[in-house]
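Q: Fold this one first, please.
A: Sequence and structure below.
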Amino acid sequence: MIGSVFSTAVSGIQTGMNSLARSGQEIARANIPADQGGTDDLAPPLVEQIEGKTQVQASARVVEAGSATLGSLLDIEV
């Protein structure tokens, strides 16, 4: 059970980091004209940055909670 919690949390962190990288690339293309593949609207990638950051933070908290739970279980067993 604890293993699946950590696996899910790590997957959430990876997904959030991928979202941050993808939206960061879109923001970096803001100086390129839209007809040459640039971005003319920065709102969506900026929102995606916030979403990615929030996902990474939430997943990190899941790792912390899982670690604390595992520590408590080990304290009970010992």
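Q: Good. Now the second chain.
A: Here it is, same layout.
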Amino acid sequence: MAKRDGSGGDRLPPFILDEPTSFLDDDHVDELHSVIQAISEWNVPQILVVSHNDRLIQNADAALHAQKDPTEDASTVTPSHGKSGTEGVAGDDD
């Protein structure tokens, strides 16, 4: 949990979920999507989700795809979709 310093008023810090679908079955992934939708109604400036689960990522407002090139030990990041036409939420299929 992040510690709030009080300077942001009622605004919460960004909400970050790293691989939240690990060990979840399809029904619980659907529930997680509902939870993320509920969190988006809070005063949270951003919700960042890193996931390999396409079902969760497809509902994002925006997504980035990260791919690692093992021969050069470097990664590239490209926009993969966005409901609003903007880029922002990440997904890594490596």
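Q: Anything worth noting on the second one?
A: Residues 58 and 81 are 8 Å apart (CA to CA).
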